[in-house]
Design goal:
alpha+beta; Beta Polymerase, domain 2; Methane Monooxygenase Hydroxylase, Chain G, domain 1; 2 domains; seven-stranded mixed beta sheet; 7 strands
Length: about 325
């Protein structure tokens, strides 16, 4: 287990003029301290190393409440201020997955180190690592507050890019001019609605985390960066709500089209019924097996009855047209 943990854990140590990327040889080498001059980013893939997490907490004399937090298998969104550090947990969508699965991310943040623990291997943070290595921008001049901001911003940006890409595909596939009241079209709309609900849930979850981060107070940790992230999540939520309203309108339009078609069918059937009811009545009378029906012996009775039927039909059609029923 220890070898697997060390394999899944990496260290990036940086300052304005220095950069190092290393792997640990032993758990005892993992030092989380505010006394070092550089800023350290420790990243671990996997949540199954709870006993090793406990050892790291004890070795570095961190707040022992972290042990309890590490033992919890499931975390709601949490931002907990402990001794000289902040524990952050949030659930993040894996947008590379077609089913939009999610993973739990944990962050232990202090003024000089950030320990990120991801449930699954792979992330959206390579561009941050590249900027650190190439010393692009101001990232190496800043501390862990800015690093945490970039990590959360990367998650938000990934949400926005995935949402915009899917929204463009959805707009083309579910165009208002191509609305068809078919089970396939309705299923496509409902599938898109479910995707949006997942995005909205994840975005609101991330926004709650950011709002909580804005309220913490810790030495050498600036919370000013997170207000921008809150605005980005608010904008994304607004876009999702707007598209959900559009999809709801399309569903209502589908039901309206189906109702209109059903009304047209019922109107046509009703008109035919009204026309044929008097004809059936006349045919029923003269189909009776009574001997004393006067018209039965009349030479032109058959043609007269047909003429009456034609007149009744013509009168009914004229009346319907006058009322503009068809």
């Amino acid at each position: 287990m220890e070898k697997e943990f060390l394999k899944q854990t990496s260290l990036i140590s940086y300052s304005e003029n220095n950069y190092q990327k290393n792997k640990y040889d032993a758990i005892s080498d993992i030092i989380l301290s505010n006394k070092i001059p550089s800023t350290e980013w420790v990243n671990t893939y996997g949540h199954k190393f709870s006993e090793i997490f406990k050892t790291i907490v004890n070795n570095n004399k961190l707040d022992d409440f972290l042990i309890k937090l590490f033992m919890d298998e499931e975390h709601s969104n949490k931002v907990i201020l402990l001794d000289d550090l902040v524990f952050v947990s949030t659930r993040v969508l894996i947008t590379k997955s077609e089913t939009l699965e999610s993973e739990q991310m944990l962050f232990i943040v202090s003024s000089s180190y950030l320990w990120s623990i991801q449930e699954k291997e792979g992330d959206y943070f390579d561009w941050i690592r590249e900027r650190l290595e190439a010393n692009k921008g101001i990232v190496r001049k800043k501390k862990t507050d800015y690093l945490l901001f970039l990590i959360l911003e990367s998650i938000v940006d990934n949400y926005q890019e995935t949402y915009q890409k899917n929204a463009a595909l959805s707009a083309d596939k579910l165009n208002s001019t191509q609305i068809k009241p078919t089970p396939e079209f309705t299923a496509a709309v409902e599938k898109r609605k479910q995707e949006l609900f997942n995005f909205k849930k994840a975005t609101l979850s991330l926004r709650d985390t950011i709002i909580k981060l804005e309220k913490i107070e810790i030495d050498n940790f600036d919370i000013k960066y997170f207000s921008e992230l809150k605005e980005q999540t608010n904008n994304l939520t607004s876009n999702i709500d707007f598209e959900l309203q559009e999809l709801e309108s399309k569903i209502n339009l589908i039901f309206s089209i189906q109702g209109h078609r059903l009304n047209e069918v019922m109107k046509t059937l009703t008109i035919f019924s009204v026309i044929f009811i008097p004809l059936t009545f006349l045919a029923g009378i003269y189909g009776m097996n009574f001997e004393n029906i006067p018209e039965l012996k009349y030479k032109y009775g058959y043609f007269i009855l047909l003429g009456i039927m034609v007149l009744v039909t013509a009168a009914a059609v004229w009346y319907f047209k006058r009322k503009k029923w068809f």
